[in-house]
Amino acid sequence: MNYVCSDRGTEHCPCHLMEAGQCYTCTMVKEGCCSCEDRAGWQGTCPYSEYLQQGSLHRMNPWDRPAAFRILSKTSYAPDLAVIRVEASHGFAEQCRRTGTYMMAEAFGCRTPLSVLRCGPDFLEFLVKNAGVKTGYLMEAAEQEGIWYMTGPYYNGLPGSESMKDMPELIIARGVAAAPLIHMLEGAEATNYCVSYLDDEGLPALFVQEYLEGTPYERVSLRDEETQQYLRRLIQKHAEEGRLVLLLVSPYYAELFCRDLSDAQRTLVIRPNPANLCCAMGLCGSCSHTDEDGVTVKLCKCSRTVIK
Predict the structure, then answer these.
(1) Both 194 and 149 in a single domain?
(2) Rounded CA gap, 73 and 274, in Å?
(3) Using an 8 Å Cβ cutoff, are 240 and 267 in contact?
(4) 146 & 223 share domain
(5) Is 46 strand, coil or helix?
(6) φ, ψ of residue 96 in degrees (nearest 5)
(7) Residues 299, 219 share a domain
(8) Residue 241 and which of 14, 37, 129, 286 are 20 to 30 A apart at CA?
């Protein structure tokens, strides 16, 4: 099993992991020999060459340090659910249009990942559900301070989406996890979209009306066991036929729907990154994963796996 890094070849590469000798796609920094063609797979660029050209240092980018974003508005749709709009330059907003983009937002010392809900010419929108201390702090900061501190953008919120040329033929979404879907529907990929199933539990009717009006979908309840069985069979059929599936659901439902799939079939399923994204750069190690071969990687950097 070989891992593909979502940041390799981007402005984030080489990152802190390369500087620390922990890049899991480059064996040069760890073993002194190159294996891009047989172990990691060629991803179009050599991170080790970039590392040397940087003076054996990680790439210093403005988004590595928190920047202040002014809150333009806070629209509440329920006591615990709101859309926060922040000011952003046109160029920065354009960088956030890629599917799966998210930011790390910080308030009162706590950081949490937020998927981009919508991009405008000079703003970004985020859907925030007050589900705990960190999201509660974000709500409080939006109201009291009028500023969020954020780093990003990061692009591994939906591992595998960077290779998606067309909209998946089967899309299943639930609750606030549908935020990346709304972002996607406004992008270039949405030429011929088809949202198959949506469990809008927790989404107020006014929010659905404003953000999903005109989007065709069948309303379902993922808590229903018969619905779960039906969707599992449907996902397996799509995967067997080599068709992409997009799951915008919690890790619990994603694993439930994918448990009958082979490793090869799972690569056809795009789903939210299941890692505990505390830093988004692999530094804190909270998303570390050791596979059956004893290889430890940082899941927040993983785009997908290559099955040999």
Answers:
(1) no
(2) 30
(3) no
(4) no
(5) coil
(6) -95, 5
(7) no
(8) 37
The label of the residue with tokens 């439930």 reads 256
What backbone torsions phi and psi does residue 136 show, to the nearest 5 degrees? -65, -40
Same domain, 257 and 165: yes
Do both 177 and 253 map to the same domain?
yes
Contact call for residues 51 and 31 (beta carbons, < 8 A)? no
CATH number of the domain enclosing 229: 3.40.50
Between CA 236 and CA 9 the distance in angstroms is 32
Domain boundary at 110, 134, 154, which? 154
Facing residues of 23 across strands?
none
- In the listed set 116, 138, 154, which residue is the last one of a domain according to the structure? 154
The reply to whether 226 and 297 lie within a common domain is no
List alpha helices for 129-171, DSSP H. Answer: 133-144
Q: Say yes or no: 79 and 166 in one domain.
A: no
The count of domains in the chain is: 3
* Separation CA 284–CA 185 (nearest Å): 33
Q: What is the pLDDT of residue 126?
A: 95
Pairs from 32-35 (Cβ < 8 Å, separation ≥ 24): none
Q: What is the pLDDT along the chain (308 residues), one digit of tens a residue?
A: 567 787 877 777 888 888 888 887 787 877 777 766 655 556 667 878 877 877 776 666 655 678 899 999 999 999 999 999 999 999 999 889 888 888 999 888 888 889 999 998 999 999 999 888 888 999 999 888 889 999 888 887 777 676 666 677 788 999 888 788 888 777 645 455 566 898 988 889 899 888 887 777 888 999 999 999 999 999 999 988 888 888 988 888 988 998 888 888 888 888 887 777 777 777 788 888 887 878 788 888 877 664 43
Identify the pLDDT of residue 194. 63
Helix 225-240 to helix 251-258 angle (10° resolution) is 60
Closest alpha carbon to 127 in 179, 76, 171, 57: 179
Q: What is d(CA 238, CA 258) in angstroms, rounded to the nearest whole number?
A: 12
Domain residues for the domain of 233 are: 161-270
